[in-house]
Amino acid sequence: MRILLVTPVPPDRGGSGAIPVLLHAQVEGLRAANDVTLLSAVGDEPGEAAAAEVLRASGLDAHFADRRVPGRGVRRWRRRARMAGAWAFGPRPWRSIWFADPGVQTILERLAVEREFDVVAVEDSAMGSYRLPAGVPSVLTEHEVLRPRAFRPPPAGPRAWPGWAFEERDWHKRPRFQRAAWRRFDRVLAFGRRDATAIAELAPEVADRVRVSSFGLELPAAADPSRERPESLLFTGNFSHAPNRDAALWLAAEIMPAVLARRPGARLTIAGSNPPAEVLELAGGPVEVRADVPAIEPLIEEASVIVAPVRTGGGMRMKVLQALAAGKAVLTTPRGAEGLDCFGEPPLEIAVDAGAFAEATVALLESLGARAELGARGRVFAERHCSPPAWAARLESIYAEAIASGRP
Question: What share of the chain in percent tops pLDDT 90?
């Protein structure tokens, strides 16, 4: 199969967020049996330029636009004016404007002339405004469905009004933009059943095109049990994502005190990128906050229990899958298990409220055997369902459907 894969960021196995990591597993799985052409853009995030060079050196047919912010001068101001105008006078939300770089469209048009593709696979609706090669079947993977929400009143302080006004207007653009993007594609892929149901409800005309498949990752080495630190809990995430901020605050404010009441020696590490002041302020006593750690794997290996008390947001949680694949005991919520439940009951401990979450945490801390058994089952689960080959097989089936659909 000749696949053109269009991604918002360069795939990167060691990326700081979930998206580069899952994209790398996707590329590696697909290229084993298919002719894959990658199109992405290099931005200012650390590691993106290096990841692009690694992909090129691997022999992958990879093409990258330069989305980095220019230095001082006319080009910088032209870019600002272009993006601000597109947001102020157009229907697209800021995330789409940020990722919809004109350089990507230029490369798309060149590739459409130079090559023939069986299918175009686009990752995330933020990339859904590009003009794709005419007549080629297309599949969109929706990383997170954004549902309409009620108007939020302005904050009390006038200084916060500009940010509030921007966020309110931008938020109300997002669901409409997503619906318009879904309509353009022959198949729309969601990572979990809840997001798939939401797509069908928000855009009934595309309901018959929606498919569900959890993502995958390149399996890490199994964690060494001898490196585990007793009584240690770990929560990881990218804290620019609001659901992770909410989870960290809930964990420190309500769950951890209940755990400490029964296990005074318990210690919690909150680690991840871009923690705001409200998360950094959680540090103290039994809680440690570690910002922008260079590698998360050593922390996962040292933890007795990985906790992911996510209550909001959509998509699927890379933090949960990474811990499962490493063979660690994982405790999460029903929302944190979304996507993994496509294969039956996943080997996770699941709790629905703060009391149950604290009780389950204590039970796992008290039983080395229970942690080991849960971790071993998690490793087998990840190998069977979430390896790059397993994920690629699911994607190939969905791409084949799009090709066979014959939809104009």
Answer: 74
200: β partners: none
**Do 213 and 269 belong to one domain?**
no
The answer to whether residues 336 and 395 belong to one domain is no
Q: Is the same domain home to 120 and 202?
A: yes
Give the CA count within 13 Å in the CB-facing half-sphere of 130: 31
> Both 142 and 62 in a single domain?
yes
Cα 405–Cα 407–Cα 408 angle in degrees, nearest 5: 150
207 lies in the same domain as 242:
no
Q: For 158, phi and psi rounded to 5 degrees?
A: -60, -30
Q: How far apart are the first and last CA of the chain?
A: 20
Range(s) of the domain holding residue 301? 225-385
Residues 246 and 349 in one domain: yes
Cβ atoms 6, 112 nearer than 8 A? no
- Which DSSP symbol is given to 265? T
Q: What is the pLDDT of residue 80?
A: 87
Higher-confidence position of 101 and 17: 101
Same domain, 205 and 283: no
Rounded to whole angstroms, how far apart are CA atoms 231 and 361?
10
* CATH number, domain with residue 101: 3.40.50.2000
Same domain, 10 and 28: yes
At residue 148, the pLDDT reads 80
The total domain count for the chain is 2
| pLDDT, tens digit (0-9, with 9 covering 90-100), for 290-317 | 998 888 889 999 999 999 999 987 767 8
Residue 341 · residue 347 · CB < 8 Å: no
pLDDT digits (tens, 9 = 90+) for 157-190: 888 888 899 989 998 898 899 999 999 999 999 9
The rounded Cα 173 to chain-centroid distance in angstroms is 21
Confidence band, pLDDT 50/70/90 cuts, at residue 408: low
Q: How many angstroms separate the CA atoms of 295 and 39, rounded?
A: 27
